[in-house]
Amino acid sequence: MRKILVIGIGAGNPEHMTVQAINALNRADVLLIPTKGAEKAFLADARRDICDRFLSNDACRILDYAVPVRRADGSYEDGVHDWHHAIAAIYERTLANEVGEDQTLGLLVWGDPMLYDSTLRIVEHVRAAGRVAFEMEVIPGITSVQALCAGHGIALNRIGLPVEITTGRRLSEGWPEGARDALVMLDGVQAFRTVEDPEAEIWWGAYLGTPHEILLSGRLSEMAETIAETRRTAREEHGWIMDTYLIRRPASESEEGAA
């Protein structure tokens, strides 16, 4: 039976590759690399760099595919649904036409497949269609969350307190109910500027794990505009940006006592 390896490749540094991920890379007969146009060529190039460094299986073929553009009209959920099904069709065609019945397809996933990545959902769309039978194995990877905390030299959680992991779109709709600490990913709207707590602190990072990495931290009320300007300048320079940040609000006396 065909097999799909969903391989977490880390947050941008080739040295984030685990031994398990390197071994999985070399078990693949076909590796599929997504391309997102000239602006995000770095993301495809980083995957190719990983293959150049760690792929020793000379028989493995590397195939590129153009990632479909997600439509912006209609609801967000409908746009994502259609986008996922368009990518699933590419995976299915690749399995049927490029991967033999006893061969393995490798998908190189930025970060870790379980955290704010849709590859596993897309693969399940292929399985649900039922036209190509396959097994799946998932290889975990280092996330931007880990790279952010390592870069700043901080622990993700405070003692006894939870951390809400959310998106910029959700944060822009309001602070997570009951949360003191929020880790924010996929923020295209600079939602940190909507947090009005004067005591809140932020640890922000962009291009984590890459040579372009930027780290900023401090009191949110004092850093928000600096981060916004840094983000704007970096996006103009590179044509794209991926950033992640942790915001901490002061814990109440009862929470500190419980901790």
TrEMBL record:
InterPro entries: 4pyrrol_Mease, 4pyrrol_Methylase_sf, 4pyrrole_Mease_sub1, 4pyrrole_Mease_sub2, CobF. This is Precorrin-6A synthase [deacetylating]. It comes from Shinella curvata. It catalyses: precorrin-5 + S-adenosyl-L-methionine + H2O = precorrin-6A + acetate + S-adenosyl-L-homocysteine + 2 H(+). It comes from the Bacteria. One of its GO terms (molecular function) is precorrin-6A synthase (deacetylating) activity. Keywords: Cobalamin biosynthesis, Methyltransferase, S-adenosyl-L-methionine, Transferase. Its EC number is 2.1.1.152. One of its GO terms (biological process) is methylation. Residues 3-223 form the Tetrapyrrole methylase domain. Signal peptide: none annotated. The keyword Lipid biosynthesis does not apply. The keyword Methyltransferase applies. Pathway: Cofactor biosynthesis; adenosylcobalamin biosynthesis.
